[in-house]
Amino acid sequence: MITYKNISFQYSKNNVVINNLNLHVKERDIHGILGHNGAGKTTLFRLTLGLLKPQKGKILLGNNDISYMPTDNGLYENLTAFQNIEFRAKIFKVSQDVFNTEANLLLKQLHIFKRSNELVLKWSTGMKKRLALACALIANPKILILDEPTNGIDPESLNIVVNMLKKINQNGVTILLSSQDLNFISKACNYISIIQSGNLVYENSINVNTNIEDIYLKYTNSNVEE
């Protein structure tokens, strides 16, 4: 679905962020990218989205129908939840009929429908993350890219997000995400890659019995919490 071939990128001569990276994200995987802050995860996503261009190598996409949830959520906090998702639908040129059906459904599935007419400014971090996910899904993408989707969220929101990701994945959506939340990774993903200083140092399939923490410590040579 997504293939990275010998990808390299640097912001300056002495700041190599992605170093000759080769990686394949299979169709219908939930593929987690792990690594510390500054490891290159967000840059990799920006390259995938075409916001940056690799200086070496190439990226092959099996489908250009991509949606993205940034780490800062990308929400307008002085708008209501419903207005936020409506704004995103207009950007994606979602038809009114589809919007009328999908918007309320997404808000209900993510347990935020009853407060959808409130200003987002008043919401908790977990609720904002759920709304950002709804905004990313309104266009019904085939590939979903999530940058730190569970930063700072409560356990209830974590479970809601995990269940939603598994649901859409079962419906055919390929998911590529980054996170330092190893609990979330173990619950959501079936495959992981670890990036250290722009280099791919580990990749393999996982399941609920995989000891993610041991793998992470081994291949990053540091503590889980920074």
Automatic annotation (TrEMBL):
* Keywords of this entry: ATP-binding, Nucleotide-binding, Transport
Q: Which domain of life is it from?
A: Bacteria
According to the entry, every stretch annotated as the ABC transporter domain falls at: 2-222
Q: Which Pfam families does this one have?
A: ABC_tran
Q: Entry's InterPro entries?
A: AAA+_ATPase, ABC_transporter-like_ATP-bd, ABC_transporter_ATP-binding, P-loop_NTPase
Gene Ontology terms, MF aspect: ATP binding; ATP hydrolysis activity
| Protein family membership | Belongs to the ABC transporter superfamily.
What protein name does the entry list? ABC transporter, ATP-binding protein SagG
Species source reads: Clostridium scatologenes
Q: What is the lineage of its organism?
A: Bacteria, Bacillati, Bacillota, Clostridia, Eubacteriales
